[in-house]
């Protein structure tokens, strides 16, 4: 077939002789900037990787033994793949929009792990994961306007169609889906009312109370796509490890919560632009999905404090997971912070930046455990961007309160980066591309000194990092040399990894 789903390269672009990343764009990214050309290059690379990953799911299912992927499950997967190909022939752009939905990434990774690492008899653990491919294919076909009919099984009490919404039903319900190319009908049986969903203009609308539409927030720039506020996808936090930190996803947003998110979002673009035009550009090009998280412990019943939690997932390119920031300024800071991780993770997938292994051997001022080199680089990168953002915010602030808050945030981030850069710069494991990146980061950090924070804020930031280092040494210094001593020596000039 001529479908790009079948002709996709089976190896990631960076490993298949792709041309080197343009030096001009690499330097731009090293400054934590990145205009349209640099971001577009990262997006194209991630798009290719997503296609490869989806094809890998089908290939892994076909290669798996019958006790991992039974013939009936493989037949369903192939049927759904054929539906996806038919949808692509009808409207390739519409299908691409579904396939690139960030939360398809965690699902695909989970499937591949289940098919390749699961032991005999594990079929019951991931059969539901493979069935979700049908929901993906149905959503793509509905968006593409391709007629189809299929039967799907609900995941829990929802049948979720990625990028469209979900049907509320009972756990494990079997649902018939049919489309004439203009609308979608969902039937469970003669005793349950049929739900009709109109799919047009990129939206899925229905008057049925059992249909749960996805919430969206306006794009940050004119012409930019809307940002999905996804509280429905069953894979949005699966395997993320949030539970280890006492965090979790919001089960479902009610009308009041959606209004609160919209209100916080409404002022974000104006504040984000204070950090420079490149901040709104990167956010408009990268951000496709926000996953609302529950408020972190200790924020009070309304969550109206500066305390919030956020994160990204390498496999969910374009998604930011976060609790609702209390102000547009913190919302903008969250985007600056997390989208640097998105950029650097995508760049690291396309370009080898260092040869350090995964050993956790570095001090991080905001972590109590030793961290790997890659985490150190990630943290330095994101906090360099934050230091720049808060400095610009402080210089533009009109009120004393806002100015003091911004200088405090800037000073803390800058001091943390200052503790990290010597370690990164001294590393012999940097590749030539990694050296360019770190050199540009160092130069960008040096320019922050042109507008230093007030002396009091700088002193408190130094004390913060010094205290963090002392606590780290007390916890991890064994006094007996060896690897622990090397960790402590590195910790003398170490810094914050955030990943």
Can you give a write-up of this model?
- The protein has helices at 4-7, 23-30, 36-63, 71-90, 92-99, 104-117, 123-144, 255-266, 268-272, 277-286, 328-350, 373-396, 400-426, 432-447, 455-476, 482-491, and strands at 148-153, 158-161, 165-168, 174-179, 183-187, 195-200, 203-205, 211-213, 215-217, 227-229, 289-292, 310-311, 319-322.
- The chain has 499 residues and is α+β, with helices and mostly antiparallel strands.
- Helix 2 (23-30) crosses helix 14 and helix 15 packs antiparallel against helix 16 (482-491).
- The model is unreliable at 7-17, 300-305 and 478-499 (pLDDT under 50).
Fold topology:
Layout (H helix, E strand, L loop, with lengths): L3 H4 L15 H8 L5 H28 L7 H20 L1 H8 L4 H14 L5 H22 L3 E6 L4 E4 L3 E4 L5 E6 L3 E5 L7 E6 L2 E3 L5 E3 L1 E3 L9 E3 L25 H12 L1 H5 L4 H10 L2 E4 L17 E2 L7 E4 L5 H23 L22 H24 L3 H27 L5 H16 L7 H22 L5 H10 L8
Parallel strand pairs: 10-11, 11-13
Antiparallel strand pairs: 1-4, 2-3, 3-8, 4-5, 5-6, 6-7, 9-10, 12-13
The averaged pLDDT comes out at 86
- How do the SSEs run, as a string of H and E? HHHHHHHEEEEEEEEEEHHHEEEHHHHHH
Identify the strand order in the major beta sheet: 1-4-5-6-7
Number of helices: 16
User: Beta-strand level of the residues, as a percent range?
Assistant: 5-15%
- Name the structural class: alpha+beta
Uncertain runs:
7-17, 300-305, 478-499
Rg on CA atoms, Å: 24 Å
Question: What gross morphology would you assign?
Answer: globular
Give the N-terminus to C-terminus distance in angstroms: 41 Å
Number of strands: 13
Main sheet record:
5 strands, antiparallel
């Amino acid at each position: 077939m001529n479908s790009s789903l079948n002709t996709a390269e089976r190896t990631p672009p960076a490993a298949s002789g792709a041309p080197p990343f343009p030096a001009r764009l690499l330097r731009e990214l090293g400054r934590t900037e990145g205009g349209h050309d640099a971001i577009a290059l990262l997006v194209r690379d991630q798009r290719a990787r997503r296609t490869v990953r989806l094809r890998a799911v089908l290939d892994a299912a076909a290669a798996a033994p019958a006790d991992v992927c039974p013939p009936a499950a493989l037949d369903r997967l192939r049927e759904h793949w054929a539906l996806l190909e038919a949808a692509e022939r009808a409207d390739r752009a519409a299908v691409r929009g579904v396939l690139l939905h960030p939360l398809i990434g965690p699902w695909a990774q989970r499937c591949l792990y289940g098919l390749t690492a699961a032991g005999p008899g594990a079929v019951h653990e991931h059969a539901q994961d493979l069935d979700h491919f049908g929901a993906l294919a149905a959503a793509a076909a509905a968006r593409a306007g391709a007629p189809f009919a299929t039967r799907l099984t609900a995941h829990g009490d929802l049948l979720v169609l990625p990028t469209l919404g979900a049907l509320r039903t009972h756990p494990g319900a079997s649902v018939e889906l049919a489309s004439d190319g203009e609308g979608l009908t969902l039937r469970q049986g003669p005793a349950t009312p049929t739900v009709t969903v109109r799919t047009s203009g990129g939206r899925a609308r229905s008057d049925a109370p059992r249909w749960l539409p996805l919430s969206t927030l306006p794009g940050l720039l004119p012409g930019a796509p809307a940002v999905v506020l996804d509280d429905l996808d069953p894979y949005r936090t699966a395997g993320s490890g949030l539970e280890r930190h006492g965090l979790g996803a919001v089960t479902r947003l009610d009308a009041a919560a959606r209004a609160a998110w919209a209100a916080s979002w409404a002022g974000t673009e104006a504040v984000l632009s204070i950090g420079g035009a490149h901040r709104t550009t990167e956010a408009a090009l990268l951000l496709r999905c926000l996953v609302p998280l529950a408020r972190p412990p200790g924020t009070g019943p309304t969550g109206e404090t500066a305390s919030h939690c956020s994160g990204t997932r390498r496999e969910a390119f374009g998604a930011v997971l976060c609790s609702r920031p209390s102000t547009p300024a913190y919302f903008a800071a969250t985007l600056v912070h997390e989208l640097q991780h998105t950029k650097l993770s995508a760049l690291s997938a396309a370009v080898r930046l260092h040869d350090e292994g995964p050993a956790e051997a570095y001090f991080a001022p905001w972590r109590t455990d030793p961290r790997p080199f890659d985490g150190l680089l990630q943290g330095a990168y994101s906090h360099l961007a934050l230091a720049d953002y808060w400095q610009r915010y402080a210089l533009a602030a009109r009120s004393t309160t806002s100015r003091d808050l911004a200088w405090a945030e800037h000073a803390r981030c800058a001091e943390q980066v200052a503790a990290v850069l010597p370690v990164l710069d001294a590393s012999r494991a940097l590749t030539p591309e990694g050296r360019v990146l770190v050199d540009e980061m160092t130069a960008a950090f040096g320019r922050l000194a042109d507008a230093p924070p007030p002396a009091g804020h700088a002193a408190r930031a130094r004390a913060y990092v010094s205290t963090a280092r002392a606590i780290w040494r007390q916890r991890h210094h064994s006094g007996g040399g060896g690897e622990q001593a090397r960790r402590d020596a590195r910790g003398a000039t170490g810094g914050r990894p955030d990943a």
